[in-house]
Design brief:
The protein has 120 residues and is mostly beta strands. The protein is built from no helices and eleven strands. Strands 2, 4, 5, 6, 9, 10 and 11 form a seven-stranded mixed sheet that branches. The chain is globular, with a radius of gyration of 13 Å.
Length: 120
């Protein structure tokens, strides 16, 4: 059974950095994992993803120069390193996983989300 538990969200100032974590269980090579976000009043959008086996990555154009997705060597935790945060990054960030999707989705498994707020 796939379980995803996010942590690391919070309130930061514009320009700050933040690292989100996702503790993953039930994930094996062959899965893709990633991050989506949903801002108030907007639809969920793709942020970044990584292939669990070989580490191929994909990013949305909006974040690709400032965010980095990574996993630990034990392949138990997914990270999203966010630098130079802007107020428009305010959203609930979701960890996602699937064994039958492309890097950009669709994803069947979702965590509960973690709130990120960036003050101007």
């Amino acid at each position: 059974q796939v379980q995803l538990v996010e942590s690391g969200g919070g309130l930061v100032q514009t320009g700050a950095s933040l690292r989100l974590s996702c503790a993953a269980s039930g994930i094996f090579d062959g899965y893709n994992m990633g991050w989506f976000r949903q801002a108030p009043g907007k639809e969920r959008e793709f942020v970044a993803a990584i292939s669990w086996a070989v580490g191929v990555t994909a990013y949305s154009d909006v974040v690709k120069d400032r965010f980095t997705i990574a996993r630990n060597n034990a392949k138990t935790t997914l990270y999203l390193h966010m630098n130079s945060l802007k107020p428009e990054a305010r959203a609930v960030y979701y960890c996602v996983a699937d064994s039958a999707s492309g890097l950009r989705g669709p994803y069947r498994y979702w965590g509960q989300g973690t709130q990120v707020t960036v003050s101007s």
